[in-house]
Write a structure and sequence with these properties.
The complex is a heterodimer of chains A (838) and B (350). Chain A is of the alpha+beta class. Chain A has 24 helices and 38 strands. In chain A, 27% of the residues lie in helices and 25% in strands. In chain A, strand 36 and strand 37 form a beta hairpin. In chain A, helix 6 packs across helix 7 and helix 16 packs across helix 20. Chain A is elongated and about 130 Å long. The termini of chain A are far apart. Chain B is built from 10 helices and 9 strands. The radius of gyration of chain B is 30 Å and the shape is elongated. Classes of the chains: A alpha+beta (838), B alpha+beta (350).
């Protein structure tokens, strides 16, 4: 929302502070300032001059030599004996006697300001010196017109400063729109002027016309006008008036400059007035060509009807686009024909043009939700939409309509063709009250308690009164009636906000809440994840974060059916179309690029959430279940020619996790691949399910990847990974210590090697060795068993070597004792597992 | 696949049968019958070309799929003893090793969240994580956004094609405030025992926004909620000031507020602090303040929705982004690095 400091000043009875102070104040108490543009610099040095003489330049078909009177104010420029300055001008409308804007040598063309500044000089044109130039509206950045120079349309003496004359020695402050989402009144200069008075602690007085004290309307040349409202729910107020005998032409220059400084392009006097009033009050207006509207119905009267579109009705808009309006859109129509998309954009057929002689001016209130949907459905975003979607007050229409009508009468020479037609569908009490909500009763303490302040009721009344709230005070008690334009204050908390903001939030006392000394319980899942991250970092792994959304192709490449994933209806690109089903594909997707960058061996992991459609209703509140997992992918580039298999490296990482969580893991071969999307990318016979050994709780899966997955994602052969369920990890994670007391007696180490059938899983022998030794070892002995070597001699058998570590708490174990122990172990192994001690 | 064209159907049957017996599967593409179909395609009139061409391509695709699958089986590695600690026949030095710990790193965003949570724990706040898929009820309705309210547009939410029981699409939350109603509802009973609701909520949020060096569609926020008796707006400012002063290690940083608009807080603010010395480049005006936090007093309707009487209890809430803090701290130039999983980036945080 752009505001003009000069425009605002016109509505204030006191001088505004310096621009810096003003901007700081606005930032602190009204809303974030996006930018401040100083127009003074843009219009510096431009002078109002009179063209005294104008003659054809010999040898040119369009250039004129002009002698201009600048009142002698510009220094350092050549003058004739009469003190006049010579300027060559090619504009068709240049002639003696007109008052124009002169850019003397050294001045910058305003339209080039801030881009590639064009600075004028004195130069020769066909042997004649031209000092600077006479400027067109376009060059002055006032409008689009470049057909001729700007003619200043009122009496002002030569030599006047152009910027001062038109109050273009101005500052434009751009306040973030979002700030005013709930403040439709602040989409007009008037509303912001009032707020500025309020935050500066000064009372604001609205102009009489705004408060409804208008001159009476006298209908001079009656134009039949009928207005109907078939949608009272969506159009709570619909007002209109007919104006006769308008002369459509460019607006007075002052009016054009008021619009242009705020970035509105002047069009013609009638349209400019509607825009001027919109910029002033925030209320959009629309002007129709009266005769065109009337002609559509055959000529009895001009009729405006607010209604929904009928089947197959179409409308061509002002922007040239033809639409099939959405069924629930608020349309403006005659008896026979659609003429406007209400609150969004007018129709092309009834546009005010140079041929227009009578107009209808409409000032209506449209339902903000309906306008929003219409705007979105048709993709039309206009200044009117911006304002209507904030919900303009339906109590401001007649004042605004009348002010606009009087102004058109002034600038377009119109007379009144009808009374104000006012279809008011508001509840009677609202109209009677002149405020949207009933008065709010509030104690000063209610506000003070919520702000931490100690203001008196009178002080609060003063703050609210400055912005024209009607407040009565009775002791500590306030009764507040908001003015008719305020749509945002409905409950007491809204009053609290007003008081706090007008007083200044920066003046609130900083005071921490009191708290008890009860210790906060940390979130156990978050803590577990923190520990796992820390542990994995120590194992040389790198934590990554990847998007929650993935490409359907990535799902397919890793054997995951996109049909099982939540799909975004408005994804930014196909790359971000689906919620991921598991984390592993996202990790695998990042491996090739990192290898290419020069990382030959690495492990990346991510802790995150995934979702499957199958569990759509299985989460809390019946929402989709959020599965949180820890996934790790390890890879070594092919060129490293790593011996062995990557699965076992992945298992090393799992062992680190098990160690961190004080659990023991069990690896279960996958005899049948379950029909779950997240396991499809694992190579069945080189993968295992991971379970907690103690509880048998399912934790996840570890493994290498299928050849298809490897090929699709350009993975090296030596790659493996795992994905574990964090909730399950938390559930099984132990707090018990695995510490064993240190024996005082020396320990004995003994390596034992078994030859076993190839198909015997390692874990079976390992578990057997531990269980057997636990049974047969001497009392009070500490025992550990570690794998030392695996040797596959031929297809039928393999050899497994363990290192036993034994120490007694009571005595020194003898070699003989240990030898017997191994012997017994060997016999049992032979019997049970067909394992032969080597 | 049922081929409409009898000639193609016949060829398909023939080739599929031959393929099952071929030792080198990819040789099927050399089949004369297949080439004949393509030759014929070229001679067809334009109106017949499209349908015929589609079917020939479909046939080629079907063959390709079988060839690929066979190739994959061929590429498959032999089974492993998944219960073993390492592969057989390795020298001790060849047994699997973890990577050197100096390579390891934690993502700077999670590190920062941990640091921030630690401060809030010490200040007496609990922590709960945010959801990544939610519904309109939590994202908007319970936060005082009326149905169809234009303020919803400010959030540029992603929505799913799938719908919930009420026929509404699911939403990828655009702010961690999506958790407010849950936390308030869950903890409301505590208030009667005189225990305040004090909770922070870190989480991943999503905005339908084009990527550039300073804009991500996926980013992290930290939400905070505090509700008790007698809570006022000055306490909100003091709480944020305390947190930020602790976080930046500079006592009593000056604060500044800007009024703002959120439907779920009243009044609403944008909260700024004096830029801490460690982040100051110079003494210019732009360097003076750091706008960081959107916040406000929780709207009475939001409390009421959660069964908390706004006459008795008041509270505040805030939310801020994590990425900006991290980018300022380390001088990270491009927000897109965070989710790119580049080791070049990550290993700098070892």
């Amino acid at each position: 929302m752009k505001i003009s400091v000069n425009w605002i000043q016109e509505y204030l009875q006191f001088e505004l502070p310096s621009i810096d102070e003003l901007v700081t104040k606005i930032g602190a108490q009204l809303g974030a300032v996006e930018s401040v543009i100083d127009l003074t610099a843009q219009y510096q040095g431009i002078v109002v001059v009179k063209v005294v003489e104008c003659s054809k330049l010999e040898g040119s078909d369009h250039l004129n030599v002009c002698l201009i009177d600048d009142g002698g104010v510009v220094q350092g420029v050549d003058r004739n004996e009469q003190g006049l300055v010579q300027v060559v001008c090619g504009a068709p409308n240049v002639r003696a006697g007109i008052t124009v804007a002169w850019l003397p040598p050294g001045a910058t063309v305003p339209s080039s300001f801030g881009k590639e500044p064009f600075v004028l000089g004195s130069r020769e044109l066909r042997g004649v010196v031209s000092n600077g130039m006479l400027a067109s509206p376009k060059e002055l950045a006032i409008g689009d017109s470049h057909e001729g120079i700007l003619e200043i349309d009122f009496d002002c003496s030569p030599g006047a400063d152009f910027a001062e004359t038109f109050k273009l020695n101005d500052q434009i402050i751009d306040i973030e729109n979002k700030m005013f989402t709930h403040r439709p009144d602040c989409f007009g200069q008037l509303g912001v002027a009032r707020e500025i008075a309020g935050i500066l602690g000064r009372p604001f007085t609205s102009p009489d016309w705004w408060l409804g004290k208008q001159r009476p309307i006298e209908v001079q040349s009656a134009l039949p006008l009928v207005v109907k409202n078939e949608l009272p729910e969506l159009v709570p107020r619909f007002t209109a008036i007919a104006l006769a005998g308008v002369t459509i032409k460019p607006s007075p220059v002052w009016l054009q400059t008021y619009l242009s400084r705020l970035g509105i392009r002047p069009i013609n006097n009638v349209v400019d007035v509607t825009n001027y009033i919109m910029m002033l009050t925030g209320q959009p207006l629309h002007a129709y060509d009266y005769d065109q509207v009337r002609a559509l119905d055959g000529g009895e009267a001009a009729t405006l009807i607010a209604r929904n579109p009928r089947d197959s009705e179409r409308l061509t808009l002002l922007n040239g686009k033809t639409i099939n309006p959405r069924q629930q859109a608020i349309m403006i129509a005659t008896e026979t024909t659609l003429i406007g998309l209400g609150g969004v954009m007018g129709g092309a057929d009834t546009e005010v043009t140079e041929a227009t002689t009578n107009v209808i001016l409409e000032c209506a209130t449209f339902d903000m939700y309906s306008i929003r949907r219409t705007s979105m459905t048709h993709g039309i975003f206009s200044d009117a939409v911006t304002r209507f979607t904030k919900g303009q007050s339906p109590l401001q229409n007649t004042a605004i309509l009348q002010e606009a009508a009087f102004m058109i009468a002034d600038v377009a020479g119109a007379s009144f063709g009808s009374e104000v037609v006012d279809l008011n569908a508001l509840p009677e009490e609202v109209t009677a009250r002149g405020a949207l909500y009933p008065a709010i009763a509030i104690n000063a303490s209610f506000s003070n308690d919520r702000l931490g302040l100690n203001l008196t009721a009178d002080e609060m009344a003063g703050l609210l009164g400055n912005v024209e709230c009607a407040v009565s005070v009775d002791g500590d008690h306030l009764t507040v009636t908001m003015p008719f334009w305020r749509t945002d204050v409905e409950v007491r908390e809204d009053i609290v906000e007003e008081v706090g903001r007008l007083y200044g939030f920066d003046k609130l006392p900083l005071e921490l809440p009191e708290r008890s000394i009860v210790a906060v319980v940390k979130n156990s899942l978050l803590e577990t994840k923190r520990r796992l991250r820390e542990r994995l970092r120590r194992t040389g792994a790198n934590e990554v974060l990847t998007y929650s959304f993935v490409h359907g192709k990535l799902l397919e490449q890793t054997g995951q059916d996109p049909e099982l994933a939540f799909r975004l209806g408005n994804a930014l690109s196909p790359e971000l179309q689906y919620y991921r089903i598991s984390l592993m594909p996202s990790l695998l997707d990042k491996i090739h690029a990192n290898i290419k960058t020069g990382y030959d061996e690495f492990a990346i992991f991510e802790i995150g959430k995934s979702h499957v459609l199958q569990h759509k209703d299985d989460g809390e509140d019946g929402l989709p279940l959020e599965m949180e997992t820890l996934a790790l992918a390890y890879a070594a580039a092919d060129k490293l020619k790593k011996p062995g298999d990557a699965l076992y490296t992945a298992k090393k990482y799992l062992a680190a996790i098990a160690d961190e969580l004080n659990i023991e893991l069990k690896y279960v071969p996958i005899t049948e691949l379950p029909d779950a999307p997240m396991v499809k990318l694992y190579e069945q016979h080189r993968s295992a399910f991971v379970r907690d050994a103690a509880s048998d709780e399912f934790l996840g899966i570890v493994g290498e990847f299928t050849a298809v997955t490897r090929k699709n994602l350009k993975l090296p052969v030596f790659a493996a990974g795992f994905e574990l369920d964090n909730e399950a990890l938390l559930k099984v994670s132990g707090s018990h210590s695995r510490y064993q007391a240190l024996p005082r007696f020396p320990a004995t180490e003994q390596d034992v090697c078994f030859r076993v059938p190839s198909e015997l899983p390692y874990a079976e022998l390992h578990d057997f060795v531990i269980a057997t030794l636990a049974e047969i070892k001497p009392e009070q002995t500490k025992l550990s068993v570690a794998p030392l070597d695996l040797y596959q001699k031929d297809e039928a058998t393999k050899q497994i070597t363990f290192r036993l570590h034994l120490a007694s708490y009571e005595r020194t174990l003898t070699d003989k004792e240990v030898g017997v122990l191994v012997q017994v172990l060997a016999e049992k192994a032979q019997q049970t597992l067909n394992a032969t001690l080597v | 696949m049922n081929y409409q064209n009898p000639q193609i159907a016949e060829t398909a049957e023939l080739l599929l049968h031959r393929l099952s017996e071929l030792p080198v599967k990819s040789d099927i593409f050399k089949a004369a019958e297949l080439k004949a179909l393509y030759d014929q395609l070229r001679t067809l009139p334009p109106e017949a070309k499209s349908a015929f061409g589609q079917e020939v391509n479909a046939l080629r695709g079907a063959l390709q799929a079988i060839v690929d699958e066979a190739q994959a089986t061929e590429d498959a590695l032999p089974p492993l003893d998944v219960t073993a600690p390492f592969a057989p026949n390795l020298k001790p030095s060849e047994q699997p090793q973890l990577l050197p710990s100096e390579c390891g790193s934690i993502h700077p965003l999670t590190t920062e969240i941990t640091t921030i949570l630690d401060i809030f724990y010490r200040m007496g706040f609990e922590a709960v994580e945010s959801r990544e898929i939610d519904d309109e009820h939590h994202m908007f309705n319970t936060l005082n956004f009326p149905e169809g309210h234009p303020a919803r547009d400010d959030y540029d939410t992603f929505t799913t094609t799938q719908t919930d029981a009420s026929g509404q699409p699911y939403i990828a939350p655009a702010h961690t405030s999506t958790m407010q109603h849950r936390i308030l509802t869950q903890h409301a009973p505590r208030l009667e025992q005189g225990i305040p609701i004090a909770c922070v909520i870190p989480g991943r949020v999503f905005r339908n926004e084009d990527l550039d060096a300073t804009h991500e569609h996926t980013f992290y926020q930290l939400e905070g909620i505090y509700v008790a008796k007698g809570v006022h707006a000055g306490m909100l400012m003091a709480t944020l000031q305390t947190f930020l002063s602790t976080y930046f290690g500079q006592a009593n940083l000056k604060t500044k507020t800007q009024p703002f608009y959120f439907p779920f807080t009243e009044p609403s603010f944008e909260f700024a602090i004096e830029r801490p010395q460690i982040l100051r480049k110079d003494d210019s005006a732009e360097q003076q303040w750091l706008e960081l936090v959107g916040c406000g007093m929780i709207h009475p309707n939001v409390l009421r929705h959660a069964g908390i009487d706004p006459q008795v209890y008041t509270g505040f809430a805030w939310g801020f982004g994590i990425e900006r803090l991290v980018m300022m701290k380390y001088g990270i130039e491009d927000i897109r690095h965070f989710e790119a999983a580049k080791l070049d980036f990550l290993r700098q945080f070892a």
